[in-house]
Design brief:
Elements lengths: L2 H29 L6 H8 L3 H7 L3 H24 L5 H25 L3 H8 L3 H23 L9 H12 L8 H15 L5
Helix pairs in contact: 1-2, 1-4, 2-3, 4-5, 4-7, 5-6, 5-7, 5-9, 7-8, 8-9
Length: 198
């Protein structure tokens, strides 16, 4: 087949897949994941059920794919923020602030959705989530290692340990009322990372 035709087919498949993910998430948010039927997803997406089954075997697989897409977007966003500056201390601060804001918004969104807790329970399990957590940990660890080399971060604790401390500390963002409070949380976290005075 000509390349243009292949590219057009792939683009169409990608659009249909995105529409399936968005429609399923909307239905699950409105009615709860347990009540969503494949026929409803097909209707909302504007495709036949047979076509839908060519993409996904069931609702849970669609929701897992939706969550995977969100995780990848967040990791890409953090990597983009990391790459905006070469100064290690500023890079670390920018990524920690972005992560804390993402975490705050995600958790608070789940709390405000009628079926948010049910969706969170369904989505935050499995090997894929564990892989994403490891990727996040490695991203923060590498930033900490660079900041330690430049003298912005203490060296008496390993970057691996510091990354765990940071990520656990920043989960407090979920209960904070504002972006300003999130920035203060990051500032307090960063103060604990600074080298001890001689």
């Amino acid at each position: 087949m000509p390349k243009l035709w292949n590219d057009t087919i792939e683009a169409h498949r990608a659009e249909v897949r995105e529409a399936i993910l968005d429609a399923t998430w909307a239905l699950a948010s409105e009615h709860g994941p347990a009540s969503v039927k494949m026929s409803e997803i097909a209707d909302r997406t504007g495709i036949g059920r047979a076509t839908l089954y060519k993409y996904f075997p069931d609702v849970e697989a669609i929701l897992a794919a939706w969550h995977h897409r969100q995780i990848n977007r967040h990791l890409a966003q953090l990597a983009e923020i990391r790459d905006r500056t070469s100064e290690p201390g500023k890079r670390l601060q920018a990524v920690l602030e972005a992560y804390a804001h993402i975490y705050q918004q995600r958790i608070q969104h789940h709390h405000h959705e009628p079926h948010g807790a049910e969706l969170a329970t369904l989505l935050h399990r499995g090997e894929e989530v564990a892989v994403a957590q490891r990727q996040l940990h490695h991203l923060i660890r590498d930033l900490l290692r660079d900041a330690a080399r430049s003298g912005d971060v203490r060296r008496d604790v390993t970057p691996d340990e510091l990354a765990s401390y940071c990520l656990h500390a920043l989960t407090a963002a979920s209960a904070l009322p504002s972006a300003a409070a999130v920035r203060r949380l990051v500032a307090v976290t960063l103060s604990g990372l600074r080298p001890r005075s001689a």
